[in-house]
C-alpha cells in the first residue's frame, strides 16, 4: 500500500486537470455512500467535529476519509481540518493507498466549487470575491481562476482583516490583481463570483447585495445549523448542489429554508451528476443569480483519491 503525503499531492495536481477528471467521473453512478458525523461542544464555544465519509464506485474503488474539524486550531498554528484517506481496490478489496486527508480535502473541495462555476458562473466574470481567509481560500481562488480566465481581480474579506491582508500578500504572484477589503457589502455588490468558506452559523451574505448575474459559491456550512447566505439570497437564486444526497437534508444552508417553507426540494434545480451529463444546462440567463452549495461527500473524496493515485503511478511506474 502506498503512502501519498501532502507534498506529493500538492506537487502532482493542477486544477484544470482535476476539474476535468471530476466532470468525467460524474458520468458513472455511485454504488454506495454514507457519512458519520460526531460533534461535541468546546470551552471556547466553537464545536469540534469528527467526520467519516465513505463511498464505493465500481470503476474507481472504495474508500473512506477520516477527518477532524477543530476551528480553534488556528490559534495553535495548525490546520482546522486534518485527517487521512484510505483507498481500496474494487475488485479484491485490497488496500491500495493511504493519502494525506488535509491536502486531498483542500484540492477536492476547491475543484468541486470550480466545477460548479464552470457550469454556472458567467463566462465573462471579471471580479471574484473570496469571503474567508483560511486554508481553503487560496485553493478556491486558484481553482476559480482556472475555470474562469476572464477574472481580472480578486478581493478578499475576512472577519480578522489582517488575515485577508496576509493572504493577499501571499498570492501576489498570481496572474490577476489581489486586494484585501474590509467592506463586505460593497465587495459583494461589485463581485461577479462570490466564494464563501467560513465557519459561520449566522448568514454573512445578504441576498439584497447580489447583483443580477452573480454566481454565489457556498462552501463553509456542513452541519444542519450552519449558514453563509440569508433567506433573500436563497429566494432570489437559481439553486444547484454538488450532490442532492449530501446537501439537501443535511446542511443548514438548504434544510433550514426548506423546513421554514421558504423553498421546497423541487427548487434544487440540479446537482453535478445532472450538470455533467447534460441533463440540466446550468446557467440559463446572463441575469440569473446562481447559487451552488458545495456539500462535499465521500464520492468526491474517492474520485480525487483515485486521480491522485493514478497520477502517482504514472510518475513512478
Supply the key terms.
317 residues; ornithine cyclodeaminase, domain 1; Rossmann fold; 2 domains; 6-stranded mixed beta sheet; 11 helices; 34% helix
What does this protein look like?
- The chain is an alpha/beta fold and 317 residues long.
- It has 2 domains: 2-105 and 299-315, ornithine cyclodeaminase, domain 1 (2-Layer Sandwich), CATH 3.30.1780; 122-296, Rossmann fold.
- It has 11 helices and 14 strands.
- An 8-stranded parallel sheet has the order 9-8-7-10-11-14-12-13, with helices on both faces.
- Helix 1 (6-12) runs parallel beside helix 3, helix 2 (15-25) packs across helix 11 (298-315) and helix 3 (101-120) runs parallel beside helix 4.
- It starts with a strand and ends with a helix.
- The model has no long low-confidence stretch (mean pLDDT 94).
Query: How many strand elements?
Result: 14
Looking at the structure, the CATH topology of the largest domain is Rossmann fold
User: Low-confidence spans: pLDDT under 50, at least 5 residues?
Assistant: none
Mean pLDDT: 94
Q: Write the CATH architecture name of the largest domain.
A: 3-Layer(aba) Sandwich
Instruction: Sum up the overall morphology in one term.
Output: globular
**Cα distance, first to last residue?**
14 Å
Strand composition percent: 15-25%
Indicate the structural class: alpha/beta
* Order of helix and strand elements from N to C terminus: EHHEEEEEHEHEHEHEEHEHHEHEH
Largest sheet: 8 strands, parallel
Widest β-sheet, arrangement of strands: 9-8-7-10-11-14-12-13
Query: Helical amount among residues, as a percent range?
Result: 25-40%
What's the CATH H-level superfamily name of the largest domain? NAD(P)-binding Rossmann-like Domain
How many structural domains can be distinguished in the coordinates? 2
Amino acid at each position: 500500500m502506498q503512502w501519498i503525503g501532502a507534498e506529493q499531492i500538492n506537487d502532482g495536481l493542477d486544477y484544470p486537470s482535476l476539474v476535468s477528471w471530476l466532470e468525467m467521473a460524474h458520468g458513472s453512478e455511485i454504488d454506495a455512500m454514507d457519512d458519520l458525523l460526531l460533534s461535541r461542544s468546546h470551552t471556547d464555544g466553537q464545536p469540534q467535529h469528527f467526520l467519516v465519509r465513505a463511498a464505493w464506485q465500481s470503476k474507481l474503488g472504495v474508500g473512506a476519509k477520516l477527518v477532524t474539524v477543530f476551528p480553534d486550531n488556528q490559534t495553535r498554528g495548525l490546520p482546522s481540518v486534518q485527517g487521512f484517506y484510505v483507498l481500496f481496490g474494487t475488485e479484491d478489496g485490497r488496500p491500495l493507498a493511504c493519502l494525506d486527508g488535509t491536502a486531498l480535502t483542500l484540492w477536492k473541495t476547491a475543484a468541486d466549487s470550480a466545477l460548479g462555476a464552470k457550469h454556472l458562473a458567467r463566462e465573462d466574470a471579471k471580479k471574484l470575491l473570496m469571503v474567508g481567509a483560511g486554508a481553503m481560500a487560496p485553493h478556491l481562488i486558484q481553482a476559480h481562476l482556472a475555470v474562469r480566465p476572464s477574472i481580472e481581480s480578486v478581493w478578499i474579506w475576512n472577519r480578522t482583516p489582517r488575515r485577508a491582508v496576509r493572504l493577499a500578500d501571499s498570492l501576489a504572484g498570481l496572474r490577476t490583481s489581489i486586494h484585501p477589503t474590509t467592506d463586505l457589502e460593497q465587495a459583494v455588490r461589485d463581485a461577479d463570483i462570490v466564494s464563501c468558506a467560513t465557519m459561520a452559523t449566522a448568514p454573512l451574505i445578504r441576498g439584497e447585495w447580489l447583483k443580477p448575474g452573480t454566481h454565489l459559491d457556498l462552501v463553509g456550512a456542513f452541519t444542519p445549523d450552519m449558514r453563509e447566505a440569508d433567506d433573500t439570497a436563497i429566494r432570489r437564486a437559481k439553486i444547484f448542489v454538488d450532490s442532492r444526497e449530501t446537501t439537501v437534508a443535511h446542511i443548514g444552508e438548504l434544510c433550514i429554508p426548506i423546513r421554514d417553507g421558504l423553498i421546497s426540494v423541487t427548487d434544487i434545480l440540479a446537482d453535478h451528476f445532472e450538470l455533467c451529463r447534460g441533463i440540466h444546462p446550468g446557467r440559463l440567463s446572463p441575469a440569473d443569480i446562481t447559487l451552488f452549495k458545495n456539500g462535499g461527500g465521500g464520492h468526491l473524496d474517492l474520485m480525487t483519491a483515485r486521480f491522485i493515485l493514478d497520477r502517482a503511478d504514472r510518475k513512478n511506474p
